[in-house]
């Protein structure tokens, strides 16, 4: 028996925390919590070998951007533990999942709940679109498609150094619309970067709506395999399936797990918004109250107590 | 004048083999960037990344994160136009020690618009954390490799390839401009291949009684505005800049900004590409066509002094340019 918390419970807690935050702040990236909660819980709670956080539980304020005049600059990577040879590294490629990633950091004990109160506040490092200096982030991924390339370079370097730790990228399926993603896969397979793996949230949604309406991408798995990657496909909300997928042999080649997810998992009430799920705002107080009651019921909690608005 | 064949090839190899954390990256222009011999002799230190510059730049950022110092080789234009976002997010912002080796700067390629990096200095110098260097002769090409690798952050270098004249006998040093002449009539500021042209013009101008003060810049960022202003203040008539680049955003702009910020009023003529693309052709043809040559410089000096020199194209062709020896004073930043 494991004494550690179950990833299933962490996933539920992530959804609850993101929901509460969205209710209190008149909107948020709710759908990303629905689709990715199990995936992030799986990464932090099981899949990744990470050392203890080197950063304070309550995130420091924004400390300036990297420059020759800012020698004390640090990234947010310390929340994932030290960059030691034996530890894995994680990039959150879709940086707009930051709210969900921060909630995960809280649930796995790497950040204090107060950290989320700083979300999107002026002068805070807990930025809306995860920046390098935001908790749990190590590189800028705000422009989609650059994460996998950067990770491939880091993984190549770590392999060259004989480091045991792997490099993992949490990706979004919208990124396969970017040409750079395919350049990255072809480079990773050409150079046999087998210490690289990715977990892709395949929720079939993007900013403008359903991907099939915005830009069809076809069969992602077949395309990735044709580029040389080893691909596993799973139900994103089935943790046993995620565990099995992670164990897929991929000797000498990158592994990409396509986690087919529901963008409303755990909050089916959001289907009323489909396909505009990217960022959920409330148009009226009545709508917010309605959603508060309905989704709280789905999540098994009391409605969030809201201040007057 | 001594001509040196492929100075980059030998300088890079000599340096890289001594520094295992240096990696040689190429995007399918390996022989065009003179690293084919290195690839063949040191395959373990060479990474082929194919025709995929967006990935290459982010990948290089990842290598930098892993503690390596990648030297990226391509034509200068391919290092920033298509992969500008990757240059910003994966290299410049996080200050990765990536060395961007840009071959065929400006009109040194017959490849036309798609191959000619005519706004690279303008782009690169506005990027925070970026250092910008430009080689003007074989000695500077040879010394730019080790010098660039001392930069604590990313650096973009304009590299000359093939048969390159040797003008200087002291190495390129970051932050040091070369004072090639100390006349007090007109200040001429040049970089890259423009310097050889200016040396040709200077010899003729000397003979015509115009005393030129000539500065050669190999560090374009950080830009030593104070030194420029000091030199500009010491000449009688004004300043002419000549560059293998658009005048907007390049050396001409930098000098103008320096003079304006110092409140120093001097007539300024900026030679280079004047808000135009170039087309494909030989280097001498293009330099003449776009007014980047010695004759154009002479005419610009005449505009600044208000006096015709009588110098003809034939007179300029007859000028012999000798290597600059130890009389050259390198000034610290």
TrEMBL record, chain A:
Domain annotation Transketolase N-terminal: ranges: 83-248
Keywords (A to Z) from UniProt: Thiamine pyrophosphate
The UniProt record lists the keyword Glycoprotein: no
InterPro entries in the cross-refs: THDP-binding, Transketolase_N
Pfam family name, one: Transketolase_N
Cofactor: thiamine diphosphate
SUPFAM superfamilies the record matches: Thiamin diphosphate-binding fold (THDP-binding)
Protein name: Transketolase
Family: Belongs to the transketolase family.
From TrEMBL, chain B:
SMART domains: Transket_pyr
Domain of life: Bacteria
Gene3D superfamilies (UniProt xref): 3.40.50.920, 3.40.50.970
SUPFAM superfamilies xref list: Thiamin diphosphate-binding fold (THDP-binding), TK C-terminal domain-like
Domain Transketolase-like pyrimidine-binding: 2-166
InterPro entries: PDH/Transketolase, THDP-binding, Transketo_C/PFOR_II, Transketolase-like_Pyr-bd, Transketolase_C
Name of the molecule in the record: Transketolase C-terminal domain-containing protein
């Amino acid at each position: 028996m494991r004494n550690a918390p179950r990833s299933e419970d962490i996933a539920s807690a992530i959804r609850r925390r993101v929901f509460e935050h969205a209710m209190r702040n008149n909107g948020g990236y709710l759908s990303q919590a629905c689709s990715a909660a199990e995936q992030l819980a799986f990464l932090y709670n099981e899949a990744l070998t990470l050392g203890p956080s080197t950063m304070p539980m309550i995130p420091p304020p924004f400390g300036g951007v990297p420059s020759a005049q800012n020698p004390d600059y640090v990234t947010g990577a310390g929340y994932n533990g030290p960059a030691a040879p034996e530890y894995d590294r994680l990039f959150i490629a879709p940086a707009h999942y930051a709210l969900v990633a921060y909630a995960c950091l809280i649930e796995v004990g790497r950040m204090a709940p107060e950290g989320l109160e700083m979300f999107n506040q002026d002068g805070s490092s807990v930025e809306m679109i995860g920046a390098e200096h935001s908790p749990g982030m190590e590189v800028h991924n705000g422009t989609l498609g650059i994460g996998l390339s950067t990770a491939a370079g880091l993984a190549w370097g770590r392999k060259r150094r004989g480091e045991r730790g792997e490099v993992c990228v949490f990706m979004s399926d919208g990124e396969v619309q970017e040409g750079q993603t395919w350049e990255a896969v072809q480079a990773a397979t050409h150079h046999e970067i087998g210490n690289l793996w990715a977990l892709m949230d395949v929720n079939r949604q993007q900013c403008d709506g359903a991907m099939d309406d915005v830009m069809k991408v076809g069969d992602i798995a077949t395309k990735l395999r044709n580029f040389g990657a080893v691909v596993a496909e799973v139900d994103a909300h089935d943790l046993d399936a995620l565990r099995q997928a992670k164990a897929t042999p991929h000797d000498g080649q990158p592994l990409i797990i396509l986690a087919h997810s529901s963008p409303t998992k755990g909050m089916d009430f959001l289907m009323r918004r489909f396909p505009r799920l990217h960022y959920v705002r409330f148009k009226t107080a009545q709508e917010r109250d309605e959603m508060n009651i309905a989704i709280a019921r789905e999540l098994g909690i009391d409605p969030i107590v809201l201040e007057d608005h | 004048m001594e001509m040196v064949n492929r100075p980059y090839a030998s300088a890079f190899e000599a340096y890289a083999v001594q520094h295992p954390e240096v990696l040689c990256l190429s995007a399918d222009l390996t022989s065009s960037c003179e690293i084919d011999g290195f690839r063949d002799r040191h395959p373990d230190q060479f990474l082929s990344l194919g025709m995929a510059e967006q990935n290459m730049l982010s990948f290089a950022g990842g290598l930098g994160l892993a503690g390596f110092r990648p030297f990226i080789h391509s034509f200068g234009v391919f290092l920033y136009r298509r992969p500008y976002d990757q240059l910003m997010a994966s290299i410049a912002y996080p200050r990765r020690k990536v060395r961007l080796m840009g071959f065929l700067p400006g009109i040194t390629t017959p490849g036309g618009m798609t191959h000619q990096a005519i706004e690279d200095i303008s782009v690169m110098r506005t990027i925070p954390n970026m250092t910008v260097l430009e080689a003007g002769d074989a000695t500077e090409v040879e010394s730019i490799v080790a010098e660039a690798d001392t930069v604590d952050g990313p650096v973009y270098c304009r590299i000359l390839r093939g048969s390159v004249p040797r003008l200087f006998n002291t190495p390129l040093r970051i932050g040091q401009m070369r004072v090639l002449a100390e006349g007090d009539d007109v200040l001429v500021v040049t970089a890259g291949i423009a310097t050889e042209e200016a040396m040709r013009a200077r010899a003729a101008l000397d003979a015509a009684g115009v005393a030129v003060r000539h500065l050669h810049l190999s560090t374009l960022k950080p830009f030593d505005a104070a030194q420029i202003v000091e030199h500009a203040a010491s000449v009688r008539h004004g300043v002419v800049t000549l560059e293998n680049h658009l005048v907007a955003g390049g050396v001409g702009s930098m000098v103008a900004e320096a003079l304006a910020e110092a409140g120093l009023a001097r007539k300024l003529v900026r030679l280079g590409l004047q808000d135009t693309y170039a087309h494909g052709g030989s280097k001498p043809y293009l330099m003449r066509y776009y007014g980047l040559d010695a004759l154009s410089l002479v005419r610009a000096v005449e505009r600044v002094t208000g006096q015709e020199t009588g110098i003809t194209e034939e007179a300029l062709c007859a000028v012999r340019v000798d290597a600059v020896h130890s009389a050259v004073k390198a000034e610290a930043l």
